[in-house]
Amino acid sequence: MTIIDIAIIVGMHVVGLAMLLSLWRLLRGPTAPDRILALDTLYISAIAQLIMFGMLLDTEVYFEAALIIAMLGFVGTVVLSKYVVRRDIVE
Q: Name one GO molecular function term (predicted).
């Protein structure tokens, strides 16, 4: 096990803690914008976890999964934000 592997494992633990804190804010958030930001942070943390896991296993499959999550997360955040602001999704 090299130093970079240890750094990746430590980074995965830190990002995992960030995911738990985001999940707590998602469940506990007092307002809808707080919950949307927590969900946005949660999917960004999931992308970071997948990229680090792909680096640890030295495979490209997890990078493609992270790209798909990024695209879907962006669209989801835009739709939820638009709904909170206008109470309507379709213009």
A: sodium:proton antiporter activity
